[in-house]
Amino acid sequence: MEKKIDETKQGNSLVLEAKDSNKRKLFIESYGCAMNFSDSEIVASILSNQGFNTTNELEEADLVLVNTCSIRDKAEQTVRKRLEKYNAVKRDINPKMKVGVLGCMAERLKEKFLDEEKIVDMVVGPDAYKDLPNLLAEVEAGNDAVNVILSKEETYGDISPVRLNSNGINALVSITRGCDNMCTFCVVPFTRGRERSRNPQSILDEIQDLANTGYKEITLLGQNVDSYVWYGGGLKKDFKNATEMEKATATSFSQLLEMVAKAQPQMRVRFSTSNPQDMTEDVFHVMAKYPNICNHIHLPVQSGSNRILKEMNRQHTTEEYLTLVDKIREILPNCSISQDMITGFPTETEQDHKDTLALMEKVRYAFGYMYKYSERPGTMAARKFEDDVPEATKKRRLTEIVELQRKHGAEITQSFVGKTTEVLIERASKKNPNEWSGRNEQSITVVFPKAGYKLGDIVKVKINSCTSATLIGEAVNY
Ligand code: SAH
Ligand code: F3S
């Protein structure tokens, strides 16, 4: 349902169209955020030129790659379990199989992986995927291979990703890589490096290709999409100083969004993730101007307490956040807002927690992703603080915010009952194969009887009932 993928869910192995000339078999699966899933498409594209077709049968793979997530300890534990599984297959069934770790855990643990996890042959960080052919050659020569060098420039803009595990309808298009924000709890700036933006032309070209192949919706992807900026064909480092940089023609996120929406009026456009401190009003105006840009903003806040926000090094207060929310409501009255929240950050008091609940009451998010704080080695928060909120307290606070979110979600879904909402059909409903499932602009899941419609259709659906997260209705002629 959601664009953002829950880090705790099982990874998906990805399969793409086979090339007859390719004789080797790649099993690639991804955990974590949408960016990882998008990166795996780049990796599969690179390896397709190295003689690999994808398979979803682990046992028959020549090469197993796992794209990993470090955001919370639990995410890393999930990957370790998968490595044990590969190990068992390698030992019992397929001794020639090679195993590589990609992504954030590769970057965080580097060579340690080779020492600790004897099964791993290759460790490749998020900016080193173009080096895969060389690394593979090393592995085939019987050596271990590691490349975890982070880049200030790599955007993979020149690689056209193969669309994996795809329904042929929604696609992820990355526009920035890395993050410069340094939220104190977060490992991403360490594992994904400095922020860099991708050439707008390569973004537009990729989306044009997607349109040509029948895709109906794209999500522009970045850790912090609002800070997207492209300096007239050059790179930030090419400019001597800020003034010179300002003089150059820069493309901002709102301009990019407008270029995309204008170029593809038939395509639905989404973006994720927005960061409160960098989001500007011009984005809302572009959203209001182009009906194909979906009325949904994922706007993580993390906490409703100013003291905690400060300790998190978030560059906004709750007041500034609420002013931004008011602006959204004013310019985009039908826009849904969703959140990320962390509960039990070090030193969080009962009052801080109450402030979070109070902020949620003020905003009334459509949905959200809520997590217990997980200490990440090397981050500022880990260096400065004890992880001092007891597990039971974290758990109870998490339950309270999840419950409140459920209540707000239910109120929002209820407000659609009796109304009509436009839905892009994305898949058959998991519960009932005679029903379609899709999302409306607000990113709320809608299910309804198939009744002659097909995947990829955009349909008006009259909503008859709902649960706290799903709308239930029937397609109507108009
Ligand atoms: N800007 C990113 C954020 C990536 S991390 C984006 O594109 O969404 C996704 C979410 O995980 C964060 O918003 C935060 O709520 C949560 N998170 C990050 N580090 C965490 C930690 N150490 N413990 C618990 N949750 C964390
Ligand atoms: Fe992490 Fe904050 Fe960037 S949550 S990804 S450091 S915006």
From TrEMBL:
Transmembrane stretches, start-end: none
Gene Ontology cellular-component annotations: cytosol
Chief site of localization: cytoplasm
Documented EC number(s): 2.8.4.3
InterPro entries, per the entry: Elp3/MiaA/NifB-like_rSAM, Methylthiotransferase, Methylthiotransferase_CS, Methylthiotransferase_N, Methylthiotransferase_N_sf, MiaB_methiolase, rSAM, rSAM_horseshoe
PROSITE patterns: MTTASE_N, MTTASE_RADICAL, RADICAL_SAM, TRAM
Keywords: 4Fe-4S, Cytoplasm, Iron, Iron-sulfur, Metal-binding, S-adenosyl-L-methionine, Transferase, tRNA processing
Subcellular location: Cytoplasm
Cofactor: [4Fe-4S] cluster
Annotated MTTase N-terminal domain residues: 24-141
EC supergroup of this enzyme: transferase
Domain Radical SAM core span(s) in chain numbering: 165-411
Residues that hold [4Fe-4S] cluster 2 according to the record: C179, C183, C186
Residues the entry annotates as binding [4Fe-4S] cluster 1: C33, C69, C104
Biological function: Catalyzes the methylthiolation of N6-(dimethylallyl)adenosine (i(6)A), leading to the formation of 2-methylthio-N6-(dimethylallyl)adenosine (ms(2)i(6)A) at position 37 in tRNAs that read codons beginning with uridine.
Family: Belongs to the methylthiotransferase family. MiaB subfamily.
Assembly and interaction partners: Monomer.
Listed name of the protein: tRNA-2-methylthio-N(6)-dimethylallyladenosine synthase
Organism (species): Patiriisocius marinistellae
